[in-house]
Specification:
The complex is a heterodimer of chains A (about 180) and B (about 180). Chain A is mainly α and about 180 residues long. Chain A has helices at about 5-10, 20-30, 30-45, 60-65, 75-105, 105-130, 155-180. Chain B is mainly α and about 180 residues long. The chains are: A mainly alpha (about 180), B mainly alpha (about 180). The structure holds zinc ion.
């Protein structure tokens, strides 16, 4: 009785419990020994298969990554610094103008308006508490528009305000761009 | 030089260097993973795509990797499985593949004359049905036991044996005929 293909395969794969019996048979049967060496030759042939080289690196998608903080391009860094310097200069120039402008807003007229509003509100609450469903008793509003006295406007101060806003915008953009990188 | 384990732990931290750490792992194993795919698929472009896919998936699932195991054998098994899935997914478009592959038609004579011996072996491998190819890959090139192959491919042990033994029979016939 010869060895089965399964026995020979399992023997070469080291997956058999019958090593001794198989070896005993192999030592006395040339036919089975020849079958085994044929199979062994295939194993050797498969083992001899060389590895082939890649034509591109598969690591590239992991190495060119956005998650690594890239240094800012030189021109951008320069722009940000210039923007900041310009903004600082502009603020320094703008400060005296703004300081001049602030006291010009008359606090008294503002206060007057607020007091008037408050009086109207109290009046309304009073009327609501004594409300007796007579149409004639409906509260009537007589809101006197508060008269704010605008500070005297000059074209130069408007321009300065505009410049100040622009500078803040540029500065903000610079900071925002830097954070986004 | 960091060990594989260091690189995996660094990848898992998810900080700025984690992608680069995984990139280093890819550099270490890309050739062996590509060769797994190439032996199974026998087509360079496809093999490169699947090898790349293997690493992308491994990166996404790096948290599921058991740090006590070796990375190389693990990633190669992932690659083999991925190739088998890819072949099976494309089966609908190439339904006759298995029938054509299973028949033990001899390779054209020109193949023997033109190609080197290794190319003959590759052609013989490529002529096997896909699931035979993967079993041969796992047994001969990744040196898994029958049990490990069964677990990896989620098939019965008896299927592992029958696929492997039949595959060897076909290979032996083709390769001996080509000497
Ligand atoms: Zn015998």
């Amino acid at each position: 009785m010869h060895l089965t293909d399964e026995q020979l395969n399992e023997y070469l794969d080291n997956e058999t419990n019958e090593r001794v019996q198989i070896e005993t048979h192999l030592s006395s049967c040339g036919e089975c020994a020849a079958r085994l060496s044929m199979l062994q030759a295939l194993f050797t042939e498969l083992d001899s298969l060389p590895e082939v080289a890649l034509t591109k690196s598969l690591a590239a998608p992991f190495l060119t990554t956005r998650s690594l903080p890239a240094p800012l391009p030189k021109f951008l860094t320069l722009t940000v610094i210039l923007q900041a310097a310009f903004a600082l200069t502009a603020i320094i120039i703008a400060v005296p103008f703004v300081a001049n402008l602030l006291p010009a807003i008359e606090i008294s007229s503002l206060m007057e308006g607020i007091t008037q509003l408050q009086a109207q509100w109290i009046n309304l609450l009073d009327k609501l508490s004594t409300f007796n469903l007579q149409p004639s008793n409906l509260p009537t509003f007589n809101l006197q528009p508060a008269t704010f006295q605008l500070p005297p406007l000059e074209i130069s101060s408007l321009l300065m305000a505009l410049a100040g806003v622009s500078v803040l915008w540029i500065l903000g953009n610079g900071v925002f761009l830097r954070n986004q990188r | 030089m960091p060990t594989d384990r260091d690189l995996i732990l660094q990848t898992r931290r998810g900080d700025a260097d984690s992608r680069a750490a995984f990139g280093e792992l890819v550099t270490r194993y890309q050739t062996s993973v590509f060769n797994v795919c190439y032996r199974i698929l026998h087509e360079r472009g496809e093999a490169e795509d699947l090898a790349q896919e293997t690493f992308i998936r491994a990166y996404d699932r790096i948290h599921t990797f058991d740090i006590e195991r070796e990375f190389g054998p693990w990633i190669r098994r992932v690659a083999a499985n991925l190739c088998l899935n890819a072949i099976e997914a494309s089966k609908d478009t190439a339904e006759l593949d298995d029938e054509r592959d299973a028949d033990s038609a001899q390779l054209p004579e020109a193949v023997y004359e033109v190609h080197e011996r290794s190319e003959t072996i590759r052609s013989a491998l490529a002529s096997l049905p896909a699931h035979y190819r993967v079993v041969v890959e796992l047994r001969h090139f990744q040196e898994l036991s029958y049990e490990e192959i069964a677990a990896e491919l989620k098939i019965p042990l008896s299927d592992v044996k029958s696929h492997l033994f039949r595959a060897r029979k076909i290979l032996a016939e083709k390769l001996h005929a080509s000497h």
